[in-house]
Specification:
It is a single chain. The strands form 4 sheets. Strands 1-8-7-2-4-12 form a 6-stranded parallel sheet. Strands 3-11 form a two-stranded antiparallel ribbon. The termini are far apart. It is built from 5 helices and 12 strands. It has a single domain, classed as Rhodanese-like domain (Oxidized Rhodanese, domain 1), CATH 3.40.250.10. The protein is an alpha/beta fold.
């Protein structure tokens, strides 16, 4: 693993300095709320039964939309899917990668206690729908 890990506050500082934030949550999660300026590139998509399956277009959409020298912060709900996205991006030749620990909502232990506060709970800038970001529908159409 050669990608870094940052808290939501640290990720915000990176984004403010020019890094690109990629939200790898589902389209529905992204539309309900996301960091302002985020790009939605789901690593998993909902199937017809409502379950989650790997997004077969994730890697191609990533390489088509973002040059390999782009500095990327990946975020999800709590930090698990975004860690996987970092691994995939690393395998595609991206070099400057950060996983946002705690994700958008926050990470909890098995008893529901907060282990790491998320972007939203820390009061960092949020948007809904595709306002203040770029949706998967847009990225997948490029």
């Amino acid at each position: 693993m050669s990608y870094g890990t940052e808290t939501p506050e640290g990720a915000k500082k990176l984004v403010d300095s020019g890094w690109t934030y990629i939200d790898v949550r589902s389209v529905e999660e992204f539309e309900a709320g996301h960091p302002v300026g985020a790009f939605n590139l789901p690593i998993l998509l909902r199937d017809a039964s409502g379950g989650m399956v790997p997004n077969p277009a994730f890697a191609s959409a990533l390489t088509k939309s973002f040059p390999r020298e782009t500095k990327l912060v990946f975020g999800c709900r709590s930090g698990q899917r975004s860690a996987k996205a970092c691994e995939v991006a690393e395998g595609l030749g991206y070099g400057e990668l950060v996983n946002m620990a705690g994700g958008f909502v926050g990470a909890t232990d098995m008893f529901g206690r907060v282990k790491q506060a998320g972007w939203q709970s820390l009061g960092l800038p949020c948007a809904t729908a595709a306002v203040g970001g770029r949706s998967w529908r847009e990225l997948s159409a490029d």
